[in-house]
Structure formats: structure tokens, C-alpha cells
Amino acid sequence: MFDSITPAPPDAILGLTEAFKKDLNPRKVNLGVGVYKDAGGATPVLETVKEAERRLLSGEKTKSYLPIDGSPEYAAASQRLVFGDSHAIVTSGRAVTAHAPGGTGALRVAGDFVAQITPGATVWLSDPTWPNHPSVFQSAGLKVASYPYFDPAANAIDFERMLATLGTIPAGDVLLLHGCCHNPTGVDLSPAQWQAVAEVAAQRGVLPLLDFAYQGFADGLEEDAAGVRAVAAHCPEMFVASSYSKNFGLYNERVGALTLVARSPQAAEASLSHIKRCIRANYSNPPAHGGEIVRTILGDPELRRRWEGEVADMRQRINTMRHLFVETLNEKGVDRDFSFIARQRGMFSFSGLTPAQVKALRERHAVYIVGSGRISVAGMTEGNMDYLCAAIADVLKAG
Ligand code: LMR
Fold first, then answer.
1. DSSP state of 378
2. Which of 148, 187, 332, 345 has the CB geometry, 3.0–4.6 Å to 218, for a possible disulfide?
């Protein structure tokens, strides 16, 4: 059965980490995967996470199964983080939330559910988008298509073309939007653009799916939810796929949530019953530990306050790295204008480096970035900046 199988290509992002680990160059730098690094180059466990784990360890009474959709407290905390404590969507019962294994798990559950209720639906993805998006939805049996998003020449959103394409999407199709910190470009919609996109989606009867993996990494936890909330204000039905990998640093705990908003509490509950069937057939019920950490932190005012400070520290540090990167490239004599990187948001920037330059960076300098030219700014540190910028200057010189 297996003799004739030829190897699949490595994953565009996680495959880089595999190659990076095997690289023997002591100066190697991994700016592939979106993982936060502190000044010492470590990806720390947040203090509030440690504290929550201490409490869980001493108070935990059972390892019995969670419900298929996770704990109700976790669901409520997730909804409040997305929409705000007293938002009508939360208080009215129009939203239901399932605890999912990471943002990816939430996207896949949404895909499975859509494939059941609207077989043949197309999921519309930004061009460019996270390379795993097409695979997640195609694996669920859905079609994918793309809408214009980024103009590389201007390093800005190609908004007119984006809106024109959104205006052609048939009712019942899914429109995937990045809630904030667009991955890979780092360029987000403005408030006015969110408004316009939400209006078009509502007019056309398109189902918005907000991939919300970086809440807190652009301007702040509340501020970053503005786009999601603008969509919610116009569209009576939507999904939000939350991830807590980045803002709680819980990457390997695989913790996220899928929130569905319906027109009525009855429709929301009926939808949840089908979502639970998708989950049961897929991974049965969610892993508890990461979700319990999130629930503990969000449910304790003092821990929550401290966690908000930790998120702010990560955000500010990434922004400091953005500026240091631009300055250091200048110092290395790079004459191309990279100042746009200091204006982008979240973990990623689209560098504009060509595939050949990306390859040269890896082969000559052991600097790993995604083939599209996406750089994880969150992987930059004071310690690797000089080497990194000298490497980029070198490959740019070679053309
Ligand atoms: C990324 O884009 O680097 C992250 O979302 C991690 C991943 O799973 O790809």
C-alpha cells in the first residue's frame, strides 16, 4: 500500500521549523513561524499562565471528559473577549461557542459545519493569505477562491479591487476576513474599510468568517476587536475563530474557540447541535488544559489585569523590533525603503523579498523566512538583529 507513495512537500511554515532545527549554523535565525521571542530569544510561559497552572494543579479534581463543545464558562469568557462584556450578541444568546483545539481547529470545525449546511459553498480568501487556509477548507470538502487584498507596489490594501470582487460573491458563500494583524502582510483594514466590507457582506448574504488569531497584538485587546464588531453590527450571522496561541503564549496547548452568531438564540442552539456532531466525528471533545488556563485567567479580575499587561508588553516589544529592524537595515547601507515595516501590525510583515532572495538568505546565512517573503517580526531580537540585517543587505546586493 505504501511502497509507491512519494513524499509530500514540507509545510510552508512548520516545514521551515523542521529544516531550521536541523541546520547546524550557530547563527541561524528562524523568522518563519509566528512565535513570539523575548529579548533573550526565548518563547516564555506567561507569568499569569504559570499562576493559573499552579491553581489548576492544586484544585483539579478530575480528568474526565469535557462536554463536546467545552465548558460553558470558557465559551462565555471567549464571547466576552471577542464582543465585549455587555454586547447584545453576548447577552441575547445569539452566540454559541465551542472550545476548539487552536484557531486551526476552530476553522476546520467551521468548514465541516458549512460543508454540511451548504455543500458546494466556496470560501473566499484574501490574496495573499495564511498558506494553511486553502488546505483547511478544501479538506472539509469546500471550494476556495480569492479576493484581491494587497498591492505589493504600494504596500497597502488594494481596497477598490477588493470591494469590487466582494460585490460579486454569491449569497451563501463564506468570506474569510483576518480580524486583525493580517497574516501574512501585517496590513489591516481601516475602520471605514471594515464598515464598507461589512455592508457588502450583509447586502449580498455572504457568511463572514473572522479568523481572529492575534487579538491584542495590533493596538490592544479591545481596539483589535473593532473589525469583528463592525461585521457583527451589520451581518446577522457570522463565525469567529479565536486562537489563544499567541495572546496567551499557549502555542502547544492548542487552544481556541469557534463562535457562531445566528439571528436568534433558537437558531444558534440548533446550529451548535450540528457543530457538536462535527466535533464528535473529528476529535470527540476538546483537550482541557489550555482552555482551563484561559478560563482561569479571564475569570479572575487580578489575573486578567496582569495578563492584559503581558499582552501589552509583547505587542510593544514587537513594535520596538519593527523600528529597530528598519533602523538596522539603514545602518547596513540598504537603500531600499523598508519604512513600511514599522507601520505594519502584528507578528508579520511582507518584506517584498523575492523567492530567490528568500532562498539565498536560507542557503547563505541560515535565515529562514516563508517563501512568500513573509517575515515574522516576533522572531527578531536585539541579539539576532545585526546578523539578520547584514544577511538581508548581502542578498539584496546580489540582486
Ligand atoms: C503562522 O502563520 O506562522 C502561525 O499561524 C503558525 C502556524 O500554524 O502556521
1. G
2. 345
- From first CA to last CA, the distance across the chain in angstroms is 46
Torsion angle in degrees (nearest 10) through CA of 100, 103, 107, 113: 10
- Whether 194 is catalytic is no
What per-residue confidence (pLDDT) applies to 398? 80
| All residues at 6 or more sequence positions from 392 whose CB lies less than 8 Å from its CB, including other chains | 329, 332, 334, 351, 353, 361, 367
Q: Is 334 in the pocket of ligand 1 (CB under 6 A)?
A: no
Q: At what angle do helices 226-234 and 72-83 cross, to 10 degrees?
A: 90
pLDDT classification of 89: cutoffs 50, 70, 90: very high
Active site residue 211: yes
Nearest CA to ligand 1 atom 2: 34
pTM of the shown model: 0.96
- Clarify whether 124 is annotated catalytic: no
Give the model confidence (pLDDT) of 238-289 as tens digits. Answer: 999 999 999 999 999 999 999 999 999 999 999 999 999 999 999 999 999 9
In ligand 1, the atom with minimum distance to the C-alpha of 243 is 5
Q: What share of the chain is helix, strand, coil (3-state, %, to 5)?
A: 50, 15, 40
How many angstroms is it from 203 CA to the middle of ligand 1? 32
All structural domains of the chain, each given as residue ranges with its CATH number in brackets, are 2-44+316-398 (3.90.1150.10), 64-287 (3.40.640.10)
CA distances from 375 to 35, 37, 346 (A): 11, 14, 11
| Ligand 1 lined by 130 (C-beta under 6 Å) | yes
Rg, the chain, Cα only: 21
> Which three cell numbers mark 116?
454540511
Q: Which of 44, 19, 38 is nearest to 30 (CA)?
A: 19
Closest atom of ligand 1 relative to the 32 alpha carbon: 3
Residue 187 near residue 344, CB atoms below 8 Å: yes
Cα-based distances in Å from 151 to 109, 116, 247 = 31, 35, 28
**Alpha-carbon gap, residue 330 to 144, rounded angstroms:** 40
Return the best residue to mutate from 18, 33, 376 for the ligand 1 pocket (most ligand atoms within 8 A of CB): 33
pLDDT tens-digit readout, 292-317:
999 999 999 999 999 999 999 999 99
